[in-house]
Amino acid sequence: MLKVGILGGGQLGRMLLQAAVPYEVETHVLENDPECPAAQLCTHFTLGDIRDFNDVYAFGRSLNSITIEIEQVNIDALEKLAAEGVVVIPEPRVLRLIKNKISQKAYYREHDIPTSDFVITQVRDELQHHLSFLPAVHKIGEGGYDGKGVQVIKDATDIHKGFDAPAVLEKLVAIKKELAVMIAINQKNETAVYPLVEMCFDPTLNLLDYQLCPAQVDASVATRATQIALQVVQGFRSPGLFAVEMFLNEEDQLLVNETAPRVHNSGHHSIEAMDSSQFDMLWRILLSLPLGSTRMRNPSVMINLVGSGDTGPAHYHGMTQVAATPGLSVHLYDKKISKPGRKMGHMTLLGSDMHQLQKQARELKNYVSVSGGTER
What we know:
By secondary structure, the protein is an alpha+beta fold. The chain has three domains: 2-88, Rossmann fold; 117-171, 2-Layer Sandwich (Dna Ligase, domain 1); 175-372, D-amino Acid Aminotransferase, Chain A, domain 1. Helices cover 24% and strands 32% of the residues. The protein has helices at residues 11-18, 53-60, 75-83, 92-99, 101-110, 219-234, 270-273, 278-286, 319-322, 354-367, and strands at 2-7, 25-31, 44-47, 65-68, 87-88, 118-121, 136-140, 150-153, 167-171, 175-185, 191-193, 197-202, 207-213, 240-249, 254-260, 300-317, 328-332, 337-338, 343-350, 369-372. Helix 2 packs parallel to helix 3 (75-83) and helix 3 packs antiparallel against helix 4 (92-99). The longest helix has 16 residues, at 219-234.
């Protein structure tokens, strides 16, 4: 039986483990929280720091293959493991490239991939030299995640918000829609492409609020988005599952925002809406099985459940009221503590009419919430 490790035990790791049930595989998770969402679902749990060389190397030495659920991992250890014969998916050099937003943007420029204009800053004071470039978005090179590490710099009065560390200053784009394409590449370099999705963000939290599949765009836009996404990931020359996020601007140009080298929030709907979910697809890649089908079963809306109110023990409200909704699936992440803005679960609603689905989704958001502190 193959031994496969996952670096990180959050909700992505949890859903990946749930998708492992049909397969003959021994699962291992490395995480520094013994009560993380994935802890109870793996075959073996190891307490440790995914950013620490010794912890990652010791964890991976006895495994056949290893993957990630978050980019913030120790890549030096993964490179050593790969050199010793452990299959690392995606390959460490690709993780190193994508982990840093500076090298990621340079990759797009080098490979003629459309992306918004940018300059690199090393310290905050350098923003003073780029006032004519504003308004722009300052993105820290490493460490940003889920909306953190991103600041809008509109003019000179906002410079204090910038990062005093290596970062990308990216020209602000007039965004019409935010889109994403998920692409799987196996170890034979075969690909499977998921339908284009449309992502709608919470403007306050800068987190995905809900997502539509298929994206509500012209067929020509969907075709171009798929072509660009394939160009992005095929240049990596690595097996893996990649989410390519894009902006559609007011001139109907597609600009690549960033790429995630792992299962991703924009693909959660695939559990119910696709023949092979993003999680199932990654197991197929890890276990050298044929790629699954990306056929869409039904249009869908995926709604993130995000913590609100105080920080404290998680309480879910409105579940009883929505439990009988036709076509609705609810996924809770088993996080013990709710915090404002923390991803606590998601709901996926399937149906035949996208306009009706969006209306239902807005109604569901009024019923269901997650909070910390005292139960209502």
